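Lay summary. Proteins are chains of building blocks that fold into shapes, and those shapes determine what they do. In this project we predict the shape from the chain. Here is one chain we studied, written as its sequence of building blocks.
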Amino acid sequence: MERSQQDTLNRKEFKTTRTRWGFGRRCKGVSFIAALALPSRGLVVSTFKGIVYSVFKCRHQGALIMFDSRYRQLLDLAHCHAEAFGALPSLYKLKAKEVLYREGARILERHHSDDGYCGVIALATAAEIAVGRARALLAKYADRKHRKGTPQIAHFTLLLRMGYTLEEYPVKSKTLKTIQKELANVEGSFYISTSGHISCMHNGTMNDWANNDIRPCKKRVLFVVKVTPTDKVVRY
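And here is the predicted shape, written in a compact code that computers can read:
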């Protein structure tokens, strides 16, 4: 009887703690706060896949607020992993190439029989590389599976290892449809995160199926990251 009462108290305490941190009843996996306490060195990609999924699967109202401090912690965690794993080998020089969404989608579907490639096109757009190279980099260094999506922390870590800098970019827009108007005249590359999807705007153009000229979308924007190359990015 005492053990049963203790279990009940423990469950109530856990529920209160989870609510205090903003996580709802349907939040699954390792909590984001607990994940930050894990040691960064030696942590493989498959581990922090669960971390990101535990955050983005939360459906409780108020669990994810735009530009919440946890987004900064997400970027900080990506910096820790990028520092632990180190820069990519020097042989991975990047050939500059501009890829349009329709062209990239056609290549991935016809030549690679791929699907769920929004992250591939986002990386190709931000890094200005071919979609085939982006696909290979994500498969090798971000543990992307064929016809599957990629956790966003893996994207961030890979971009940092490639020599890019990442920083939060505050916006007023709340949907993919309206943010395209806000960033229409802004130069640079921006990762735009929505539920289960990642988009990239480059020099004012949305290079994604959610482009207003292709298929306007009202998915809610969760956060925006500006991607900027440094002198460590090797081109040829």
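What the prediction tells us: The CA atoms of residues 140 and 158 lie 10 Å apart.
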